[in-house]
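ARCHIVE CARD
CATEGORY: sequence design from structure
SOURCE FIELD: tokenized fold
FIELD CONTENT:
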């Protein structure tokens, strides 16, 4: 769940899911293509890329729906924006939703969200990764229901789920790839999103917990935790996972937290 909503473009895809307006920015597809692209003369590359894009779209939409449904649970409206490789569940309704052009996101009609309680913010932040893990659980249940099983694969330095299909689906590589992508994104990405790195969901949860007794000191501690965890994850992504995009992502998040800390006075004071 990233911070700034991107501006509208003529190429946005707009629709509704369970009453929530959804807007898909074209950069979402572009970054998805870059993440799923593989070089070489693989004759099945186009199908693999299509499966990857479907899984990416469904998984991130489900993640943001988790946030939006929790907003609704607390009596708040929300809408969803997917862009780049991430998404946003934003409190409030678009100005013209329900009248005129329903997909005008020009402003929020003077909408002023009420203050969220720490409990509400923690549950809203947890709901995104939580619903992804629930989706992964359904996929695993499907694998076992069809006679297959799931093992752990340590080839990338992490215990990643490796699906093994039952007899009814054995030999169907596209189904295997679909299930593997679903497990990878909805388990690994969900757990990564729960790391205490701002502005990821885990960082938001850590911020709320640490601010309970001391808002100013808790914010500093949350930023230090974000810097340390983000830097460690960047090193791990480079040396163990060999994923340069992940390394750059967490390095940039750690740097952003450090810059915020400097604006607060350099983080001086007791940890």
């Amino acid at each position: 769940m990233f911070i700034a909503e991107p501006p509208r473009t003529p190429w946005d895809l707009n629709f509704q899911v369970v009453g929530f307006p959804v807007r898909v920015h074209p950069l979402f597809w572009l970054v998805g293509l870059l993440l799923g692209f593989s070089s070489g003369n693989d004759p099945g590359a186009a199908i693999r890329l299509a499966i990857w894009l479907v899984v990416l779209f469904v998984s991130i939409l489900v993640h943001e729906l988790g946030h939006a449904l929790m907003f609704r649970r607390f009596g708040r409206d929300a809408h969803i924006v997917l862009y780049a490789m991430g998404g946003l569940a934003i409190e409030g309704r678009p100005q013209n939703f329900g009248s005129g052009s329903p997909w005008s996101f020009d402003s929020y009609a003077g909408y002023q969200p009420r203050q969220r309680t720490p409990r509400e913010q923690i549950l809203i932040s947890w709901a995104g990764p939580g619903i992804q893990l629930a989706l992964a659980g359904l996929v695993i249940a499907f694998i076992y229901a069809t006679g297959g099983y799931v093992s752990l694969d340590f080839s990338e330095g992490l215990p990643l789920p490796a699906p093994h299909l039952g007899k009814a689906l054995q030999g169907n590589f596209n189904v295997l790839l679909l299930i593997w992508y679903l497990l990878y994104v909805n388990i690994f990405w969900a757990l990564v999103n729960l790391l205490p790195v701002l502005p990821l969901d885990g960082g938001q949860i850590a911020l709320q917990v640490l601010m309970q007794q001391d808002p100013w000191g808790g914010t500093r501690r949350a930023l230090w935790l974000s810097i340390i965890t983000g830097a460690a994850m960047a090193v791990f992504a480079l040396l163990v996972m060999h994923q340069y995009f992940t390394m750059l992502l967490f390095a940039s998040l750690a740097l952003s937290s450090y810059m915020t800390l400097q604006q607060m006075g350099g983080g001086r004071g007791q940890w």
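CARD ANNOTATION: Residues 45-73 form the longest helix (29 residues). Residues 96-111 have pLDDT under 50 and may be disordered.
SHELF: design records, drawer C
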